[in-house]
Every structure is written in C-alpha cells, then in structure tokens.
Amino acid sequence: ISAKELTELILKRMKNVESKVGAYVYINDENAVSFAEEVDNRIHAGEILSDLVGIPMSLKDNICTEGIFTTCASKILENFIPPYNATVTKMLYEQKSILLGKTNMDEFAMGSSTETSVFKATKNPWDLERVPGGSSGGSAAAVAAGEAFFSLGSDTGGSIRQPASFCGIVGLKPTYGLVSRYGLIAYASSLDQIGPLTKDVEDCALVLNAIVGHDNMDSTSVSFKGVDYKKALINDVEGLKIGILKEYFEEGVDEDIKKAIFDSLKLFESMGAIVEEVSLPHTEYALSAYYIIASSECSSNLARFDGIRYGYRAKNYDSLKDLFIKTRTEGFGEEVKRRIMLGTFSLSLGYYDAYYQKALKVRTLIKQDFEKAFKNFDVLIAPTTPSVAFKIGEKINDPLGMYMSDVCTVPINMAGLPAISIPCGFKDGLPIGLQIIGKHFDESTILRVAYTFE
Ligand code: GLN
C-alpha cells in the first residue's frame, strides 16, 4: 500500500468516526495527502526509508507545527499559527511521517478528562458517554478509534499514561530530558515531557527511536545516544526484579483494578521474574506537592499571554493594564485561572516558604524513595489510574476529585522517571492500565517488560 492510499484510507475512516469521537481540533487533510504523494515519489526514487515513513499520525495541540494552528485548546491561542516547528515535529517530518492533524486536549494540558478544552469534550471510543482521560485525551482517542497510527502527547503529571489507560492503548512518558521540549508550549517546565501514544509496545519503541536525541534548543535536553529501542523488544523477563508499589494499592483504588494488576504480576512470576512488595513512604504527599509545583510553574509560564505579542486580544480597553486584565480574563478558562491563582499565591512573599519551598522538599523525598527502591529492583509496578474512565461531566465541577485521578502518575514526573502504561484487563468493558516505571534513561527495560506482557 502506498503512503497516499494509507493516508486516504485513514482520512476516510476519520470522516466516519470523528463526528462521534471528536479527537481532533484541526484536520490537515489536503496537506496530508499531498505530503503523502511526495513521500511515495521519493520512495519510488529509492530515496528515503525509515521505520515511520508514510505513516499517518497526529500531534497534541500544544506541540508547535509551522504554518498549522497550535491552540492548546485555549481561546487565548485560538488563532495562533506558529512560525516554527517543535523539535519533535521536525524529527517526525524528517522520518516522513504524515501529519493528519492536531488533537484535542485539556486547555494548556491542565486536566485529566479533555473537558476543559475551549472547543469540545472528546469522547472515549470504548463508551461515548465517558471521558478519554486527559490532558492528551484527543491523542489517545485518535489512536484507539483508528484515527491515527500513533500520536504524540505531553505528560506533566500523567497526561500521556492516564488517557492511554482509559482508552486501552500504550502510552510512554520518557525520562525527563530524553525528548526535546523545544516547541512544546510549556505548562510546568520541570515536569513536562513529550512521548508516544501507540497501539502496541512495538510501535512505542519505533516512535521513541524517532524522537529521542540531544537538542541545543532545550537546555534540559540530555545527550543520550546509541540506544535502539527496538532491541528492547525481547520476550523475556527471566530473573528481572519487579517491585510492587505498596502505597499505590491503598484507599481509593478500584478493587477490579487491583485484581487485574495482581493477575499481571502472577504472569510475570510464572515467566521467571522475581516479584516483591516495596514501600515508598512519601507517596501520600506527592499529589499535593505536585499541584503546588505545577501551578507555580504555570503561573510563571503563562505570564507571556498578555494580548500584546500573539494570540487573542480583548477588543475594548482603556489602558495597557486594562488590556492585560481583559485579555487574560476573557482568554483563559476556569481551570487555567484556578491554577494561575494558586501558583501566584504559592510563590508570593510570605507564602513561598510555606508552600512552594515545602513542595520542593517533598519532591526531593519522593525522588529519594524511588532511588532507594531502584537499588533493589529493575522496574516498579503500579496501577496507572485508581479508576477506569469516568462519565463526561462527572468530575468537571469537582477539581479535587479530578486531581485524584492523577494520584498514581504524578510521583513519577516529580522524580523525572520513565513510565509506560499498557492495557492489562477490563472492568465492565472499560480498559485498565498497568504502569511500569523504570530507572532514569532505562526505557529499554520497561519496554522489554511491557513487550513480554503483551
Ligand atoms: N492532570 C494533571 C494536571 O492537570 C496532569 C496534566 C498533565 O500531565 N499535563 O496537572
């Protein structure tokens, strides 16, 4: 099959399902077909070959695409067309992957359900009354509904893994620094990472291969060369030490999810892995500390949206200050404003020590918990989410309830570790996710464990 045929096929499928699922905020149909044609010509000329050549994919709408809308699903960026590509966009274009469009998300990646998008709520393809998770819910729904072969999302506190889990697909958050964040519109810079959402573990390795690499444009990007993640796809966990994270099975986690994870662990044991429980005593503080740190960083990162440089500008104003205030009041949604307020408060004189500084200390304790655990284990296992996909509207007016859905994923971002979510069962027809956490830069071992399970 040619790249053009493949692209046309998937665009046809999108015509049928997109009105139900609503995974995309922008569809790049004409460009995609002409780009695919160009790719076919070059393949015929014997020119290009890569694992992802001619493969149609999508990008979360906070990843910059030159000449193509990048809105963060926010009114404040609704007309923003970036003048440059994110490094990951450039890398996928170099591989000759075909961009089908930009996927829906929670506004500025703040949320766990894709309901805070200014455009629309994306539906979970497994049950259209339920959320696909978030914030990369559009990316996960697109892959699950066959509207893209793979997608890139961003994960600050779980936004790749949680929607992957809700939509029954594979989602990987790489080690902090492994994938360039240049051109990813920042939410919380010390936690954000870009990563793949794919149908299976093999695709995950191929996409990871394509986006890893040092980038001078991102000062936190590391030089980590020479790993071919395809080589990690071995069907064997013999002798590997797997830790079960004790605190991740405590209150609030659904019994069926616990059971599915324990059944998976039995399978690993039967294949020769050594499975033992391990305790990370500071886990209970992770969620609160995360929301202080993420909000603080976002209050600073989002200061640039002032109505002057780009994006939305309020129509009627009396002074410069009035312009700032009206633009931001009209341009940002409720959840984004809540975070900016919370972050500004935590960073303000008199509260900095009590909140922000304290949260940083908790972050260090969490990191140390993981470091200790990794002295004895190769990978750690936990549920990805405490529940399966919830109903649209169920948590949108309950911010704390919504924040709780990240309880199993945020500690991993706080520690900068890599983790993958893979499907491991169902509850009432809805997918359950198994989370495998690895040592820094040891994506290979988590891919190996995931591949063996699959
Ligand atoms: N749901 C979490 C939050 O709202 C995580 C979001 C993310 O990873 N981008 O902060």
Q: What would your notes on this structure say?
A:
This is Glutamyl-tRNA(Gln) amidotransferase subunit A. GO terms for molecular function: ATP binding; glutaminyl-tRNA synthase (glutamine-hydrolyzing) activity; transferase activity. It is an enzyme of class 6 (ligase). Belongs to the amidase family. GatA subfamily. This protein has 454 residues and is α/β, with parallel strands linked by helices. It has a domain at 3-232: Alpha-Beta Complex (Amidase signature (AS) enzymes), CATH 3.90.1300. Helix content is 38%, strand content 14%. It is built from 14 helices and 11 strands. It has an 11-stranded mixed β-sheet, sandwiched between helices. Helix 1 runs antiparallel to helix 2 (29-44), helix 8 packs across helix 10 (334-347) and helix 8 crosses helix 11 (353-376). The longest helix has 24 residues, at 353-376. The site of glutamine has 14 residues, from strand 4. Glutamine binds at residues 109-112, 135, 154-159, 187, 294, 406.
Describe the secondary-structure layout:
Elements: H1 3-21, E1 24-27, H2 29-44, E2 56-60, H3 87-94, E3 98-103, H4 137-144, E4 150-155, H5 161-167, E5 170-173, E6 193-198, H6 201-211, E7 241-245, H7 255-270, E8 274-278, H8 286-301, H9 320-331, H10 334-347, H11 353-376, E9 379-383, H12 399-404, H13 410-415, E10 419-427, E11 430-438, H14 443-453
Parallel strand pairs: 2-3, 2-4, 7-8, 7-9
Antiparallel strand pairs: 1-3, 4-6, 5-6, 5-10, 9-11, 10-11
The chain binds glutamine (GLN).
The site of glutamine (GLN) has 14 residues, from strand 4.
